[in-house]
Amino acid sequence: MLHQYAPAAGNCQQEPLVETELAGVTDHNPNHDPKHPKPAPNPLDALADMVADDLKAVNEIIVQRMHSSVEMIPQLASYIVSAGGKRLRPLLTLAAARLCGYSGENHRRLAAAVEFIHTATLLHDDVVDESALRRGLASANAVFGNQASVLVGDFLFSRAFLLMVDTGSLEVLRILSNASAIIAEGEVLQLQTTNDTSTTEQDYLDVIRGKTAALFAAACRVSAVVADRPPAEAAALDEYGLNLGIAFQLVDDVLDYSALQARLGKTVGDDFREGKITLPVVLAYQRGNEEERTFWRRTLEQSDQSEGDIDHGIALMTRHNTLRDTIDRARHYGAIARDALGIFPDSPEKLALQEIIDFVIEREF
Question: Residue 113: is its pLDDT beyond 60?
């Protein structure tokens, strides 16, 4: 179930969004000076350590299943798979399986399938968006071309379905097949809202529930299915993943306008340049005066952008609190995700999944 966030008034002034507001882990002294103690690993690294053996097996499956006698397929696939992604979705599958007490190996196949689905969507998205960069590096379509990227994305989708079949579970196949269809629907919805400043917050939520949150939900739910847990536990993991995914995308859409992006070697304002209507823009347009709305229509609907427009857009978001309000909404959905785990007894896995919520909201990449 998707919970609508009740918007705040948002008409007061705010200071510009600063890097420390989204900082995840502070720098530390390598000499372990007592005055500068080494921080604990961030929750993502801690989760990866917890499921290290499983994750190693997943990576081996990914390498094996990327193989093809057609030379360009493993070249392109390995290029994007090794491009520095967080592996968050397969980590959720592995951790959720442990939370459910599963002791087999099918969760590893499913984690690899989830990563293949995610990677395939990235390949297709970069072609649709005409993106030249992915995670600060040249995108696969910039290196190998659009046609190869689309076709290798199709190959990875096919590999994902083979891995699902290998589990022998029709319910797993149904869940991930349905998620794949919902992802495609979300991407088409995003095409429909692009360059449309009349987009509402609910329209935006429908987009991100489809294009992002559906795979988070499925990645968690399938673990309960292979572990043969009760439907209530599968539903709880679905609710956790769905709301975590919504929070993840909300933060992503704030980071696109953050100075942190430039520090990490990424470009600031890709969504603005592409005319994507994300929540910070939706709120800025709704709260702005007619002069400000004219600016948004010119730059996003008409794609008439000049030097300095993106800085002006960020200034308007700052004026109307839309970046911070978007983060507040992420916290709201994070709280729903946390509540969904209440059905499970306390365990290291439950704690790790709870801490991932904080990581998703506070991350800087």
Answer: yes
Compute the distance between CA of residue 157 and CA of residue 161 in angstroms, rounded to an integer: 6
Q: What is the pLDDT of residue 5?
A: 52
Question: Which is the CATH superfamily of the domain at 42-362?
Answer: Farnesyl Diphosphate Synthase (1.10.600.10)
Instruction: For residues 311 and 231, give the distance between their C-alpha atoms in angstroms, rounded to a whole number.
Output: 49
pLDDT of 151: 92
Using 50, 70 and 90 to split pLDDT, how confident is the model at 140? confident
- Dist CA 112 CA 110 (whole Å): 5
Half-sphere exposure of 294 toward its Cβ, with a 13 Å CA cutoff?
3
Distance CA 23, CA 4 (A): 27
Q: Are 241 and 220 in contact (CB under 8 A)?
A: yes
- What per-residue confidence (pLDDT) applies to 260? 67
Decide if 196 contacts 277 (C-beta within 8 A).
Answer: yes
The pTM assigned to this predicted structure is 0.87
What is the distance, to the nearest Å, from the Cα of residue 234 to the centroid of all Cα atoms in its chain? 21
Domain boundaries, the chain: 42-362
